[in-house]
Write a structure and sequence with these properties.
The chain is α+β, with helices and mostly antiparallel strands and 461 residues long. It contains 16 helices and 24 strands. It has a 7-stranded mixed beta sheet.
Length: 461
Amino acid sequence: MKVAIIGGGITGLSALYELSKHPEVDAELFEANHMLGGKIRSYHREDFVVERGADSFLARKPELMALVSELGIEDQLVTNETGQAFILYNEELHPIPKPSSMGIPSSLKPLLSTSLLSTKGKMRASLDLVKPKAKLDEDVAAGQLFRYRFGDEMVDRLLEPLLSGIYAGSLNELSLESTLPQFKALATKHRSLIKASEAIQKKQPTAGTNTGQFRTFKNGLITVIEALEARLDQASIHKDHKLVSVERDGNQHRLSFENGHEEIADAVIMTVPQPVAANTFIEDRLSERLERLRGASVATVALAFRESDVSERADGTGFLVPKGNDTVIKAVTFVDKKWPTSVPDGHVLLRSFVGRPGQEEIVNESDDVIVEHVIEGLSKMLEINGTPLWYDVERWQEAMPTYTVGHKHRVQQWREAVNNTYPHVLLAGASYDGVGLPDCVRQGINAANQIVNQEKNNDKQ
C-alpha cells in the first residue's frame, strides 16, 4: 500500500514514523520547504537558543512525551522555570493570580487579593460563586461564558490576554467546545467556574510545586524533528515538493507537485494547514466549496541584551499586554528566566509577540519598523539602558489556527466533504483537533493507524 503524507511538520513526521513500523506500508512524505519542522523553528546564535515558533509543549499530554521516550532523547529535555507571570495594566505589572487554571482562580482568595482588578471588578467576578449555571447545550464563545460568570473587567484584563494568546483569536469568537472543553464539561457539573478551577487543580499533582508543566530541549524543539528524521528512511522524505493538486485516479490519487513531480498513492494524509489543503482539492470544485479556516498572523521578535543593560526587571518569566495599551506588543517572555539553558550567563533574551486580533497589520511591516515599535514599547515597561546586541524577527502569516464558534462541526463537515470526493484522504494537524504539539503528534499517529486498520479490514474482506 502506497501512502503519501503532505507536510513535514510534527504531525506529518509522526504519521510517517508510525507508518514506518508497518513494513506492508510504503509511505513517503512531501514537504514544500527545504527543511522539516513546520512551526518548530529553533534558531541558534552564539550560545543562544531562540524559538521562532512554538517554544515548548505541555508535559501532561502524553503523546509527545511518549514519542520522546521512544526516540531516546529524554536526557535532552529541560523543564520550564515556574516563576511569576504578569499582566501589564496602567503601565504597571500585576501578578497573575495563583493558583489558577487557564487564568481562572481556584479560590476566592487570589481573586480578592489581586491588584489587577478594581474593587467593583472583584465583587462582580465573585458573583461566579452564586450565579446560576449557564446553558451550554450548543457551542458558545468562551468570552460569552466568562463574561456571564465574571463580568467584563476580569475578562478584558486577565482572561482575554491570556487565552487569546494561546488560541490566537478574540475570546468573544473562540469556540468554548474546541479550545476549553474541560471548562465546558465542568461548567455543566459545577455552577461556579472558580469551583471548576479548584477541581482541575486537585487533579494536577504538580500544582503548587516548583515543577513546571512545560518541556523543551537544551538545543531547542528542533531536537525532536532531527531525531525523527534520523530514525526515518531518508529516501522516504522529499523536501522542496510543494503540492499543487490532488486528483482521483481510479481508486488511487494522483498528486502533482510544483516542481513537475507526480506521485500515485492509495491513501493521502494531509497535515498542511486547512486552507493550503483546500486549494489542492480540484475535483468536484471541492476547493471552492470548502470554507477556509483563516488563521491569525503574528510575528515573534527576539532581542538579546547584556544583563547590565536591562535593570529593574520584574522577577518573573514574562508578562501579557491586554488590548487598550498603547503598544503593538501583546506578550513578552523573559527567555533567560523561563528557559535559563537557552541563554548564556550575563545576558538577557526578550521574546515579544506582535499581531493582536484585529491589529495584525504590524506583521506586514519591515523588520526595522517592527523592532522599533517593540523597543519603544519595551522601554515603557522595563528599564532598558542599552541597545540590543542583535535581534531576530519571524513572521507567521495567517498561520495560527483560530477555532471560532462551531469549529468542531465545521471540521466534521470538511472531513465528510473530502471523504465523499477523496475516500482515502485524511485531514490531520493543528487546523483540526488541537493546536499544541502533543495534539499534533496524536493526530498524526491516529491518521497513520486509521490507514493501517483500513488496509487490514480490506485484506479480511
